[in-house]
Every structure is written in structure tokens, then in C-alpha cells.
Amino acid sequence: MSGQDFKPGSEEHLAEVLAHAIAAEQPLELIGRGSKRGFGRAMQTAGLLDLSGFSGIRMYEPDELVMSAGPATPLAEIEAALAAENQELAFEPPHMGHLQANAVTDGSIGGVFACNLAGPRRFRAGSARDHLLGFRGVSGRGEIFKSGGRVVKNVTGYDLCKLMCGSFGTLAAMTEVTFKVLPRAEKIWTVLAFGLSAEQAVQAMADAAGSPHDVSGLCHLPTEVAARSAVDFISGAGASVTAIRLEGPAPSVTHRATALKTMLAAVEGARPQGIEELHTHRSITFWREVRDVSPLLDGETVAGNPLWRLSVTPTDGARTMTGILDQVPGRGLMDWAGGQLWLALEPGAEDGGVDCIRSTMDGGHATLIRGAADLRARIPVFQPQPAPLAALTKRIKDGFDPRGVLNPGRMVEGV
Fold first, then answer.
1. In whole numbers, what is the pLDDT of the chain averaged over residues?
2. Which of 322, 326, 346 is nearest to 334 (CA)?
């Protein structure tokens, strides 16, 4: 079996493949479309388990706001089917191929849930795990199992849907996912404040988040990052851009935008160089850029530029970002009102800047989203866990995959 690749087309065949892998104690790398192969620790596996045979939309009921699909179904196919019914994935999953400088730019819906991905609307709509209703799969024991269903309901016992999200294929190979979808907003506007410092932007975003204006996006792009936007109104500003998104019925959005502009003009200590707005078409383009952090990437190679994602307390976002970039050359942006930071570091930072980043942070998590294979093998890609949590993680892995045949070591060395 050493060095073999497998492409099962049914759950039964998949279970047989895993049974052979377990018997031979030969680890396998799981992929759907391959857009996230550079996300996580570098692994040493004996073969490839290609799950692309589990693809296609299997059930979609727009009136019930629910869809089921094979995990290898392209994310673009899912989004196109939803757009035809004026619906969407409310948690805005990023297209990881763009972040990875990967030739496979369009990832899979299963990868979205396996990595628990979410975009700018996450602080309001929740992450991927909050939208997964059920799944089918095969565990590392070679057993076919399922969890959840087609409706949201109270959970008794283990909520395996929540557990599977963010497991990076280390617990089971999914064969079907069922998830909820939501209607798209009638109108999308973005209120922009130009020229705020990072600290002023955090205050402005906090005020907007705490206001009654029901915002759905809060981000800040420093001047050099804003200049890379494909939206001319952003790139031509010649200043930092603090963006606040509003969605909903047209009259409501218009009213809330007017109120937000007045509020931003009165932010204590801030004197915006201007306050403007983007209407629906440009707003969609801009927030897609924020979702995929494309203004940070600029077509760089994986080997050259580490890309980090940090989760911190929103009020600590400005201090953390400026503190790191004062020590390590690079650029960054703030999303989720400062609660999520993206940092693209310049080549040459020792160990990808990991020590600087984690010593500067005051709590939270730092994840290396993109980096060369040798870097990902050398440093903790994910935030190191406290000993009790690490022990629990090990017990869960042993329960689902006692022989370590599914993506071993992708998240934690030896697990």
C-alpha cells in the first residue's frame, strides 16, 4: 500500500480503503480539491486519499433554506446555485486558494467546514460550524457514521457537527454535508471613513458595533493596503480606510448609512479626512477582497511571505498589529472590528515571525495560514494548547482515529 493514492466513489469503498490503511498502519493525506494543502503543518503520509468523487449538490430546498452536497463540491458551484435563488452562505467563507497562491483557487464546501472558515460577517452570522446541520462520513476506525440532520434542534450528547468543524480532516473523511443558507440582502452599502489611525479606527468600529444600526462588516485598511484595492474609490483615497457595511431593505440601509456618517464624524479624537459611501456593486467587490485578504497578497509566493491570522480582543487589535509590524516588516489589516488581524510579513523574518507575534499578543490565537513547507514543519502552525486541552485533543483523536491514518500531524505534532 505504500505510496498508493486512492479515489473512492462510495462510502463503502471509502470504508474499505480506510480499513486497509488501518491494518497496514499507513497514514493518508485527505484532499477534496487541494486548495488548502498548504494550510496546516507539513505531513509525512504514505499516500493520498482523494475525495473528489464525493461531489455535487444532492439536495437544495430554497424555501426551507437548506442544502446538502458532497464535500468536494466546488465552493463556486454552491455559491452559483444559491445566487440563482437570491440566497447565500451568510458566514462568507474565504476562497483559500487565493490565500495560498494556489493554482486551485476554488476550494470545496467540505474544506470550508473541515477548516471552520468564515469571512467578514462572522462576528454577526457566526462561523462555519454554526451553519452545519449534519454530515455523513467514515471515521479513522473505518466506520460509516452520521450526525445531525436537516433542521436546527437541541443537541443531546456530543455535537459532532461542532467537533468536525475545525478538525482539518484528522477525525473522519466526510462524504456529505448538510447546511443552512439565508436570503441575500436587498441592498448593501459601505460607509467609509478616510484617514483614521489604527487606534481611532478601533474606536469608530466599536462605536458602530455597539450602535443600533445593525452593521454586518467592520474593517480597517492602512494606507498602503488600501492602495492595493481593486475598488478605485478605495485605492485612490491616498489614506487609510475604515469600512462599515450595512445590509437590508433599501429604505433601512439609506437611513442607517446617514446615521452612521453622522456618528463617525463625531468619533472622539478623530478627524476623518472624509466620510463617503460605496453602493451595492462596489461594496460587494470590496468585501470580497476583505474576505480573501487580496490587498495583502499581491501575487506573492508561498515560500516568500508568511501570512498570519490572529484572533484577539477587538479593543487590543490596533496595539497588537502596530506592535508586531514595528518589529517585523510587513503589512496588515483589521477585520471583525479589530478582533481578527491579517498580517503578511516580508521574507527573512526568523521562523516566520512566530516569536514576535505570539509574544506581542496578550491572549488570543495566532495561526500561520500560509508558509513554506519547511517553516510549517518547524513551528507550531496553530496556537499551542494548554496541557489539559492538548490531552483532551489527543483523547478525541484516539477515539476517532486510533491508528493515526487521517492527516496525522496536520494540526499538532504526533496527533
1. 92
2. 322
Domain that holds residue 305: 294-378
The answer to whether residues 248 and 144 belong to one domain is: no
Torsion angle, alpha carbons of 69, 72, 76, 79, to 10: 20
Residue 1 has a pLDDT of: 40
Cα 322 from Cα 331, distance rounded (Å):
9
Q: Is 28 left (phi over 0), alpha (psi -120 to 50) or beta?
A: beta
Total number of domains constituting the chain: 3
> Which residues lie closer than 8 Å to 289 by C-beta, 6 or more apart?
229, 230, 231, 295
Three cell numbers written together for 307: 501570512
Rg (CA), the chain: 22
| Residue 413, domain CATH | 3.30.465.10
Which of 260, 276, 291 terminates a domain? The answer is 291
34 burial level (CB within 10 Å; 0-12, 13-18, 19+): buried
Rounded CA separation 225/240 (Å): 8
What lies within 8 Å, CB to CB, of 291 at 6+ separation is 92, 93, 94, 95, 119, 120
| 112 membership: H or E segment, kind and range | helix 109-114
pLDDT in tens, 249-285: 999 999 999 999 998 888 766 667 888 999 999 999 9
E strand segments, 195-349 = 215-221, 241-248, 274-278, 307-311, 330-335, 340-345
* Paired sense of beta strands 172-180 and 66-69, if any: antiparallel
Residue pair 102/96 in contact (Cβ under 8 Å)? The answer is yes
pTM here is: 0.93
Angle subtended by helix axes 198-209 and 250-265, to nearest 10: 140
Looking at the structure, tell me whether residues 3 and 64 fall in a common domain.
yes
Parts of the chain with a pLDDT under 50: 1-2, 301-303
